[in-house]
Amino acid sequence: MSDFVIFTDSSADLSGEMVSQLDVQVLPLSFILEEHAYFNYPDNRDMDPHLFYDRLRRGGMATTNAVNVAQYTEALEPFLQAGQDILILAFSSGLSTTYHSSLIAVEELSAKYPGRKLYAVDTLCASLGQGLLVWYAARERERGHSIDEVRDWVEEHKLNICHQFTVDDLHFLKRGGRISGATAVVGSMLHIKPVLHVDNEGRLVSTGKARGRHASLKALVDRMEQTAIDSGSLTVFVSHGDCLGDAQAVADMVKRRFGVHEIYINHVGPVIGAHSGPGTLALFYMGTER
Fold it and tell me: In what order do the strands lie in the sheet with 85-90?
């Protein structure tokens, strides 16, 4: 058994297999699709990602909910009772209230279990960017570092986790208030694809635009070339909104251009996909800056 437990939430978009390999605990966020509530489990037991995106393509509307304090308390307390310390790596506070709920739970449980170490970190990350940070944290733990050392490593390096995004359907960004209705209509007519990233405040912001899908995918890899640290030896994560072919194309570009061998691909989960839509494609890596 590990000296401490790493908790994250399902916005990290790690697969059930990866969760098992890393030996981490994942709290599921929830979403409502066409008036039915579901949990976003890593193993997709409540809803298959392909089905989720297919329903969005057919006009389905989805809303999402953060992890609340009660969920955190219920999940964390058994580990504290068993004498284990806990490090929480939470969804960006710039996109969700999940981190704020974790802080309240940590305060309450720390008072109840004063002999235990219980920390919450605002990752300022999303999707497999958050997943990549969890991956690095689990690696540091495996190397024998203490909970304090891993927490400090995460705090020091979280702003080096680069998130490069593009979306295929501008109308989902319009629904979330990211762009105006007029911009969505005109952009769709002209086949304009936004290029976005997660900034140092953990918010999804636009960094440019490209004409056409291929150009937008290439723009993600171009940005990686500008910011990646030791690109040939990096571990790279790619997430996609039910567009596996495009994800593999980006992975191939990364392999050809940088010689990267370790690339992990998984779905953008419903919690983020509800706001970014089908065709979302994101590239994550360790860089000099976001």
Answer: 25-27, 4-9, 85-90, 118-122
Sheet holding 36-39, edge to edge: 36-39, 30-33, 62-65
Start-end of H helices in the chain: 16-22, 49-57, 69-81, 98-112, 127-142, 147-157, 170-175, 181-189, 213-227, 244-258, 270-276
How many angstroms separate the CA atoms of 172 and 187, rounded?
13
Which contiguous run of DSSP H or E holds residue 63? strand 62-65
Number of helices followed by number of strands (H, E) in the chain: 11, 13
pLDDT tens digit sequence for 10-43: 999 999 999 999 999 999 999 999 899 999 999 9
Q: Are 127 and 115 in contact (CB under 8 A)?
A: no
Structure tokens at 258: 């940088």
pLDDT value at 194 more than 90: no
Average the pLDDT over 239-251 and give the result. Answer: 98
Strand partners, 86: 5, 118
